[in-house]
Amino acid sequence: MMCGAAVIFAAALAAAPQQGREARTPTTDETVAVARGARLTVENFAGEVVIKAWERDSLRVLARHDSRGKVNIRTTAAGVAIRADNQGRGSVDYEISAPAWMPIKVAGTYNFITVEGSQSEVSAETTRGDVVIKGGTGSIVARSIQGEVIVEGVRGRLTASSVNEGVRITGASGDISAESTNGDITLTQIKSQNVEVSTINGDVQFDGQLTDRGRYRFTTHNGDISVAVPESSNASFVVRIYQGSYSSTLNLTGPPRSEVRQGRRTTYVLGNGSAEMELESFGGSIRIGGPGTLKTRAREKNKDVK
User: C-alpha 303: how far from its chain's center?
Assistant: First the structure.
């Protein structure tokens, strides 16, 4: 449970008009040289942290904050650590230009985090706020509790999660782990041999290529699962539903629907069945189709909402 001061501060942030960074003149503008191998660490209690990659071996920190505050930029052999000394008293908005090769770690409480163009490891975690990561190689971590998580064009091992919002992953390659409690999880243009996705109160949507001998596991308690893969894929779909329905527009081999019992594992095969995809929903339906299926389902869902 948050203390009274934190609750008041959070309410003030939510109620404040979006005057934006343009309304606040830069209070800190500092550039430091960095050597290859150095890491960037940013701690910010509240505000926005926007980091964009550039090709220089230097780090520019542009920050907007209270005139009484001070941003500390500490350079060590391990890298650069950035932290304001007015943590908890007011928001700080950062615009940081960092070398594309530089590993990045951002953490905070009331933060909206954006990292673009990185060619290295990225870790971004916040309690209240959205996380957007575009680009990154190696270990990629994107986590929020009260915010949406959006990841695009990463290569490597990705861990993405949100408790009360959705997770959207586009154009990722490498191992993927995505999790939510009260949000949808959508994966498009995926190239991965190992994907594990779970949500409780949300839908799961996957549109991507399956790798021979790959492993894919999608589970939801109170949502639908929609999978779109090329007809030329080689996969075994292990389906388990409890209260919903199952359907497919692909030429799968398996038992007739009349023989499928709810709560029992049922396997359907496409091609030689090399990849294994486990699909399990307790309170929703499971649908398997070709590329473009997710777009159709999204339009149907939006139409139903209206």
Answer: 26
